[in-house]
Amino acid sequence: MTAAPTDTREPLLQVRNLKKYFPIKKGILNRTVGSVKAVDGVSFDIFPNETVGLVGESGCGKTTAGRSLLRLIEPSDGEIIYQGRNLVDLNTKEMRKVRRKLQIIFQDPYSSLNPRMTVEDIIGEAIEFHGVAKGDEVRSMVESLLERVGLQPSYVMRYPHEFSGGQRQRIGIARALALNPDFIVCDEAVSALDVSVQAQVINLLLDLQDEFNLSYLFIAHDLSVVRHISDRIAVMYLGQVMELADCDTLFGRAFHPYTQALLSAIPLPNPRRKAHRVILKGDVPSPMNPPSGCRFHTRCPSCYEPCRTIQPTSVEVEPGHFVACHLYDPEHTTKDSSTWKSLPDLQWIAKGGAPANLPPAVQRVIEELTGTPPPETDGDRGVPEEDATPEEEDATPDEEDATPEEEDATPDEEDATPDEEDATPEEEETPDLDESDEELDLEASSDMEETEKS
User: Fold this and answer.
1) pLDDT at residue number 377
2) Buried b / exposed e along 380-404 (16+ C-beta atoms within 10 A)
3) Collapsing DSSP states into helix, strand and coil, what is residue 144?
4) Residues 6+ apart with CB under 8 A from 390
5) Sheet order of strands, 315-318 included
6) N or C: which end of the chain has fewer CB within 10 A?
7) Closest CA to 20 of 81, 83, 82, 62
């Protein structure tokens, strides 16, 4: 999977068919009996001043891929091209010079810092080793870096145990910035922090990216965090990239069934709104013996015959949107509507119609399942422009029909006159009420006189 062909920029880092197999050895002779295929054919590009998010379930190979890019773990196969040079072919001395421009922020801020070294030694060690500065200049640079990541310059003589988790991660960020790199691997850099501290660290990374023109490979589990910081997102499953697209496209129109399942697991902030959850059946297969064909076919709700035997290739279904799924491959796609209906969420595809690169027959199947796209509407009334005229013409007879109703209103008013005349006798009955009142008053007065006499 590569970047969009419409992007004319030169990639900062090109990853081609990257693989990392860990050997499994048994017996007295320590023979290799198998291998764990942690990363198996990953390809993508990273451009200057860009953040590529790498997401997936635990054990899918995200961290192994990130460390293999920097050759902290030696890759088994593939190419890692940086500034026109394949990093896999460089020897130790040549790689040491290049590593100044390629840094990493580790996941655990506690185990990644040496507890026996001060902050000045932790950050300044790389500065002295690469000959950037010496003596008092090192302390000055360390103090400046601490201040830039939000810590007090006076912390240079403190030890890691004197800091909180968020402060330790800031020290790790300062260490990664010490040699002015071009590319940083953020290996779940905020997963071990509190939510409030996560927001601070993410905003710090964004500010540093703009200031130093950095590129990130941001590895994380939290899709909300990845959406906030990433420009493009790659979804991994069992050592392979299933889908790659820019952030808005992936969250708005995900095509791969696995991506749709991941996005359905994002909690909604509104408790009254019920989300459609996609529950994947079965467990993740072992990377020691991955399934044949598509890695996801054992849990895919839309699995059909080619998925079990043929490994899918990356297909660009939209500009810059790559999917490794047979449903979108013109060579192996299916016209069976039941297979398409079993997708976790076909309406996400319907938001923009069928992908343009699919065969016309398959496009018609999707349009039949999701409904024909609505015609262009008039912004004022929300109705089709061509159909608006007949409706306005039909409105004229309605107005003419209203005239008899107004004419019929006249008899009603005439009929009201007898009602008013009938009301007169009711008013004439009023004296009868008054006479009864006078009789009651006379009786009351006579009773009072008898009381006084007594």
Assistant:
1) 35
2) eeeeeeeeeeeeeeeeeeeeeeeee
3) helix
4) none
5) 102-105, 183-187, 215-219, 51-55, 232-237, 240-246, 321-323, 315-318
6) C
7) 62
Is the whole-model pTM more than 0.85?
A: no
The sign of the torsion formed by the CA atoms of 364, 366, 368, 373 equals negative
As to burial, measured by CB atoms within 10 angstroms (0-12 exposed, 13-18 middle, 19+ buried), residue 201 is buried
Give yes or no for a contact between 355 and 349, defined as CB atoms under 8 angstroms apart.
Answer: yes
Q: Give the contacts of 14 (CB within 8 A, at least 6 positions apart).
A: 45, 79, 80, 81, 82
State which H helix or E strand residue 24 sits in.
strand 13-26
Query: Is 79 in a helix, a strand, or coil?
Result: strand
How many CB atoms within 10 Å of residue 301? 16
Contact 138, 178 (CB under 8 A): no
pLDDT at 371: 66
DSSP one-letter code for 275? P
For residue 200, the Cα-to-chain-centroid distance in whole angstroms is 20
Give the chain's residues under pLDDT 70.
Answer: 1-8, 347-359, 361, 370-454
Q: Which of 144, 106, 110 is nearest to 124 (CA)?
A: 144
The pLDDT value recorded for residue 353 is 64
At 354 the pLDDT is 64
Specify the pLDDT at position 418: 45
CB 283 within 8 Å of CB 268: no
Residue whose pair of structure tokens reads 């779940």 in the numeric block = 188
Which tokens in the block code for residue 58? 């635990």
Sheet holding 31-46, edge to edge: 31-46, 13-26, 77-82, 85-86
The DSSP bridge pattern shows strands 183-187 and 102-105 to be parallel
| Alpha carbons 296 and 293: distance in angstroms, whole number | 9
Nearest to 136 by CA among 151, 156, 116, 155: 156
**Farthest-apart Cα atoms in the chain, separation:** 138
| Rounded-to-integer distance, Cα 395 and Cα 222, Å | 55
Q: Which of 349, 317, 335, 304 is nearest to 242 (CA)?
A: 317
Residue in the block written with tokens 């990374």: 205
Span 373-403, pLDDT tens digits:
543 433 333 333 444 444 444 444 444 444 4
Task: Provide the token pair at 444.
Answer: 């009351």
User: What digits encode the pLDDT tens for the residues 396-442?
Assistant: 444 444 444 444 444 444 444 444 444 444 444 444 444 444 444 44
